[in-house]
Design brief:
Blueprint lengths: L20 H15 L46 E6 L1 H7 L2 H7 L1 H15 L19 E8 L4 E7 L3 H14 L4 E6 L2 E6 L5 E7 L2 E7 L9 H6 L11 H7 L7 E5 L1 H16 L5 H11 L4 H36 L2 E11 L2 E10 L4 H5 L9 H4 L3 E9 L2 H14 L4 H11 L5 H5 L3 E11 L15 E9 L2 H14 L1 E2 L2 E2 L1 E3 L2 E5 L5 E7 L2 E5 L4 H7 L5 H4 L4 H6 L6 E6 H9 L6 E4 L11 H6 L4 H36 L4 E9 L2 E9 L5 H17 L4 H30 L13 E4 L11
Antiparallel strand pairs: 1-2, 1-8, 2-3, 3-7, 4-5, 5-6, 6-7, 8-9, 9-10, 10-23, 11-12, 11-20, 12-13, 13-19, 14-15, 16-17, 17-18, 18-19, 20-22, 21-24, 22-23
């Protein structure tokens, strides 16, 4: 039932340690494990409401009939902010090839099984073990965020045998020396901590079980477990207009989700209001205390100065917070709900969804449509790494940018003036903005296969393009000429070549600013302007693997497109250069002897020259071994992360708001193949890449370094003592430091 929301409270920080962790692990681990993948297809779609009267407490009145629940959404309050479910450990095992993975990684599966059985008594990776715990391995499972303010999260799953499930819960509690109390609440059975040390509980109703955790223990906060147990399905989330609109029309799929961003934002803003109500001017308090104890005039004057600074800072903070609040309220205003359905295909999860908007919603004004689809992907070369674009109303977009700037204590006007004075020679707001149509696209591409043995040259293979559709090419050409006269573009020196304005970006590539038909391009691709003007296709269609993202990026009637190659981006983060070391020596005296710089000034003997030549060759061998080791290690890690593939989807305006289409296009034969690649990478990382050749080269170099040091010290002794007497200089061992040619370690380096 819909229950009145209590007044805003102090900031909520979710702390699972506040709850009895061990007794909850059975339900939490069950739900989380099943939610990691995509489960069986639900048997039903969104639940239709039944118009029957209910009392204020949510209990059915009239004929006294108790409505049976068959869907988790029927047990959730109307103001639930997010819910997602999958269904079935059986389907989960099928999708991820559980049996194949268990056979290939027996030790990893055995370790996970032992941990879960020891803690909760069930091997969650084995669908056959669910029946023993009373859980239906073919039923819906998932999680819901009910309230961020009160820290309420629910995990739910379908029961095959409530008696077995309760018995297993009690066994787990007893194993951890805890006890569950059972009580009847309306049509539900509730099991909770008998000692009352944590709020929440297990709610069992019909064939569903819902574990409700509640982190906020304050007095006056409603007991959400009680609310869930006593809820009338006809007044639940499943019966709400927002839920039904968001999921209505979406086909039953392997996984589904509902999100109400307006409720989530309202909850967050209520918490922000509660925080703002607290007086944070510590200097004001300190000043009052200082005056009460007759502090010195200097101390009082200093505290008054700090108080005034705090007041100014607080006034500025209030202004910034108001702008930030207006920004998020604009974005979510009018959103009734977001519904998403995922179906697992061979190429990965396919997304189908919708954002339902009221008339007058700001997003309807902001996002336009490109009937023919985005033109840039068709003309680009290379494989897409990042592709973001679409069409917006320029004035509406500037509203958002201005609010964003004000939330940071700045403004578009001031930034434009600074750009005009310091960098561009033009005012972006007054000179460029009126010439833009609102259609734009940003593209980062990989123009050649990665050479893992020469990652220091990766920047040469990365392409960058910014495309802005323009209203008047001639006026934009004039603006570029004006920028050219100021000699810089965003601080980079310009030179005009073949009708384009070129500038070099340090440690990257040469960029070109050029007008091509109805587009202003800033790009590394010298041939792009010509291909766009003539309609010649680039290589992206052929280079994109798998091909799905390209087809999504070129769909017609789009308001926005988004593509991110998770594999390569993850690879760039988790890989790096293996580090070696080279022999160097402290420039300081040893036992009263000379510094190393003094030793190096002495005349070099023939033996030392020969040793130095051998040392230089050994150092070169080390650098080659470092490159080989780095390439092997990076390639091994890349093979794992590249299986993640690419996320690509489009937003398409329609009469109800926006539809969503796309998916995750994986770089493996199946989702099981993705897990296989990741586990293989982890196993290789744990065992370490073979670095025998590198170690051998380092050892040879280090020995030559010690020999060279000894010879150079003898040279110094000969020059300063004529080779007579005992030297005070000790040869010792060289001190190692990271090679100047080596970057940070990539794990085992």
């Amino acid at each position: 039932m819909a229950v009145a929301v209590p007044p805003p409270r102090a900031s909520f920080c979710y702390n699972p340690a506040m709850l009895s962790a061990r007794v909850r692990r059975f339900a939490v681990a069950t739900s989380l494990a099943c939610s990691l993948g995509l489960g069986c297809k639900p048997n039903e779609g969104p639940v239709e409401p039944v118009a029957e009267p209910v009392s204020a407490a949510g209990v059915v009145v009239g004929d006294g009939e108790v409505v049976r629940v068959s869907h988790p959404a029927q047990m959730l309050p109307r103001d639930t902010q997010f819910v997602a479910w999958v269904a079935g450990a059986d389907r989960l095992a099928e999708v991820f090839d559980r049996d194949g993975l268990a056979a290939k990684f027996p030790s990893e599966f055995e370790a996970a099984r032992a941990e879960m059985v020891g803690e909760i008594g069930v091997d969650l990776l084995d669908p056959g073990a669910y029946a023993a715990a009373g859980i239906d391995s073919k039923g819906r499972m998932g999680a819901a965020l009910i309230s961020t303010r009160d820290g309420v999260v629910a995990f739910f799953f379908t029961l095959a045998d409530a008696g077995k499930f309760k018995a297993r819960l009690r066994e787990v509690a007893a194993h951890h020396k805890e006890e569950l109390a059972e009580r009847q609440v309306g049509p539900s059975t509730v099991l909770s901590d008998a000692r009352g040390q944590w709020r929440g509980g297990f709610v069992l109703r019909d064939d569903l079980a819902m574990f409700v955790t509640q982190a906020n223990p304050d007095e006056g906060v409603r007991d959400y477990a009680e609310a869930v147990a006593n809820i009338d399905p006809r007044q639940s989330l499943a019966a709400s207009v927002e839920y039904r609109k968001a999921l209505g029309g979406l086909r039953d799929s392997d996984a589904m989700a509902f999100f109400n961003p307006a409720l989530l934002v309202a909850d967050e803003l209520a918490q922000e209001d509660a925080r703002d109500s607290v007086d944070n001017n510590w200097a004001e308090t300190a000043l009052t205390e200082a005056k009460a104890r007759d502090a010195s005039a200097d101390e009082i004057a200093e505290l008054e100065r700090q108080r005034d600074e705090m007041r100014v800072w607080d006034e500025q903070r209030v202004v910034r917070a108001a702008a930030g609040r207006e920004l998020v309220e604009k974005l979510v205003d009018g959103i009734e709900g977001v519904g998403v359905a995922l179906s697992v295909k061979r190429t990965g999860p396919v997304l189908d969804g919708q954002i339902v908007l009221r008339e007058g919603a700001f997003l309807r004004q902001l996002i336009g449509v490109v009937p023919e689809g985005m033109s840039l992907p068709k003309a680009l070369n290379g494989e897409p790494l990042l592709m973001w674009g679409g069409r917006v109303d320029v004035d509406a977009a500037l509203e958002l940018v201005e609010l964003l700037a004000r939330s940071e204590g700045a403004s578009i006007h001031d930034a434009s003036i600074q750009a005009e004075k310091a960098m561009l020679g033009i005012n972006p707001t007054t000179d460029l903005q009126p010439l833009l149509t609102g259609e734009a696209m940003l593209a980062v591409t990989l123009e050649a296969p990665v050479d893992y043995a020469h990652l220091d040259e990766l920047a040469k293979q990365i392409g960058f393009t910014l495309q802005l559709k323009i209203k008047d090419p001639a006026k934009v050409e004039a603006l570029l000429a004006k920028i050219d006269k100021s000699a810089t573009l965003a601080g980079f020196a310009l030179s005009k070549k073949n009708g384009a304005y070129e500038f070099s970006v340090p440690r990257f590539r040469t960029m070109r600013a050029v007008v091509a038909g109805d587009s202003l391009l800033v790009t590394t691709d010298a041939g792009l302007a010509g291909r766009l003007a003539t309609g010649v296709e680039g290589s992206m269609r052929r280079d994109t693997h798998p091909a799905g993202p390209y087809h999504v990026l070129t769909l017609p009637n789009v308001g926005g497109v988004w593509s991110t190659n998770l594999g390569y981006i993850a690879g760039f983060f988790v890989t790096g250069f293996a580090s070696s070391s080279m022999a160097v020596f402290h420039d300081s005296a040893v036992d009263g002897g000379p510094s190393w710089s003094e030793v190096e000034k002495s005349r070099m003997s023939r033996a030392a020259k020969q040793k130095k030549k051998a040392l230089d060759a050994a150092e070169s061998n080390v650098e080659k071994a470092v490159a080989a080791f780095t390439g092997a290690q990076t390639k091994m890690m890349a093979d794992g992360v590249l299986a993640l593939g690419t996320t690509a989807f489009v937003v398409q305006p329609n009469t109800r708001g926006f539809s969503l289409a796309g998916g995750q296009f994986i770089g493996a034969d199946s989702l099981g193949g993705v897990v296989d690649a990741m586990l293989t990478m982890i196993a290789h990382e744990a065992s370490g890449t073979d670095r025998g050749a590198l170690t051998s080269a380092e050892n040879e170099r280090d020995q030559l370094s010690r020999d060279y040091r000894a010879l150079r010290i003898k040279d110094w002794e000969r020059a300063n003592k004529g080779g007579r007497g005992k030297s005070k200089v000790k040869t010792g061992k060289p001190v190692k430091r990271k090679s100047a040619k080596s970057a940070k370690s990539a794990g085992n380096g």
